[in-house]
Amino acid sequence: MSETETRTHRTGKQQNGDAMSETSTVEDVFDDTYKEKDGPKPPRMLVWRNIILMSILHIGALYGLIVIPSASALTLAWTAVCYLISALGVTAGAHRLWSHRSYKASFPLRVFLAIGNSMAFQNDVYEWARDHRVHHKYSETDADPHNATRGFFFAHIGWLLVRKHPDVIEKGRKLDLADLRADKVVMFQRRHYKLSVVIFCFLVPTLVPWYFWGESLSIAYFVPGLLRYAVVLNATWLVNSAAHIWGNRPYDKTINPRENPMVAFSAIGEGFHNYHHTFPFDYSTSEFGWKFNITTAFIDLMCSLGLAKDCKKVSKEVIMARIQRTGDGSNKSG
Fold first, then answer.
1. With 0-12 CB in 10 A as exposed, 13-18 as middle and 19+ as buried, what is 41?
2. Is 152 domain-assigned?
3. What three-state secondary structure class fits 5?
């Protein structure tokens, strides 16, 4: 990887050696020309449908916690499998593959990741990737969908309970999303998203334990169904909230995103957030390989099986140069 300084960062500095292949997106590079509008902020408009649905979901998830002791060992194992599949649909799929194009995936792998994404029920891949690119391009500004400077609650779940800031909508419309529109798997999932969510987020997790080993429909619905869904949601949201507030910044002390091992553990590898916002095109989102990073291990497995290829990675020399130039001195590189 070249050490030519090629990519503009949010402070106006250049990232040392962040060269990318011609197939990589530039829509995830921070735009330091954006200026927030002067004057009062737009009024906060509550989305009552989302507030009610999220409240019902979390009440159901709490009930799922209560009935866990009544679930069979097979149901608990199935819950873990559903958690992993749905989490990978977000981390390896919507995030690392489709938002950042940090590696290439074969058609079968893209289908699997799209199914996992529907099981996670966090908006279809197209919308998820669009909003995530806006998040990187306008991080911690009014144009950031989950701007962490508005507080933990807003960055975690509050952004889903209110109307988007007009700048989020405006900037999202201006992104080049031709790569997403050209992916037949992405567009098929978008066209059939509601049906795919009903099937993969709710019916499959519920009916498999009921049909194959006689679990009660109630436990099957509330444990691998609602509880698993709510936990995956909150693990993903912690990347937007906790990993933008608590932790160290060994790669770039001028930005908010932090290294948060607890978030990395719960979100199967997405908590190394200072690294990720410094090098968003790195397929591993971390310099530490498989450490707290099931997603990286999964992508590496797919590469070994011939289902993925062309993983983008930052060289050790480039990482160390960046640490010495902009890090906060907390580096633990081995």
1. exposed
2. yes
3. coil
Rounded to whole angstroms, the Cα distance separating 73 from 93 reads 29
- pLDDT tens for 43-58 read 999 999 999 999 999 9
Q: What is the pLDDT of residues 75-109, one digit of tens each?
A: 999 999 999 999 999 999 999 999 999 999 999 99
Q: Which residues contact 293 (CB under 8 A, 6 or more apart)?
A: 264, 268, 269, 272, 284, 285, 286
The residue behind tokens 């590898």 is 269
How far apart, in whole angstroms, are the C-alpha atoms of residue 99 and residue 125? 9
User: What SS3 state is found at 112?
Assistant: helix
Helix (H), strand (E) at residue 105: strand 104-105
Which has the closest alpha carbon to 221: 334, 112, 20, 61?
A: 61
In a domain, 69, yes or no: yes
Tell me which residue range forms the domain holding 216: 45-326
Q: How many domains does the chain have?
A: 1
Q: For residue 163, how many other CB atoms are within 10 A of its CB?
A: 14
Q: Under a CB-based contact definition with an 8 Å cutoff, are residues 266 and 235 in contact? A: yes
What number is the average pLDDT over the span 223-238? 98
Residue 246 lies in a domain: yes
Which DSSP symbol is given to 77?
H
Which of 53, 175, 185 minimizes the C-alpha distance to 124? 185
DSSP string, 287-326: SSTTTT-HHHHHHHHHHHTTSEE------HHHHHHHHHHH
CA 273/CA 261 separation, integer angstroms: 10
Confidence of residue 8 (pLDDT cuts 50, 70, 90): very low
The residues facing 308 across adjacent strands are 105
For the residues of 146-199, what is the DSSP string, one character each?
T-GGG-HHHHHTGGGSBPPPHHHHHHHHHS--HHHHT-HHHHHHHHTHHHHHII
70 found inside a domain: yes
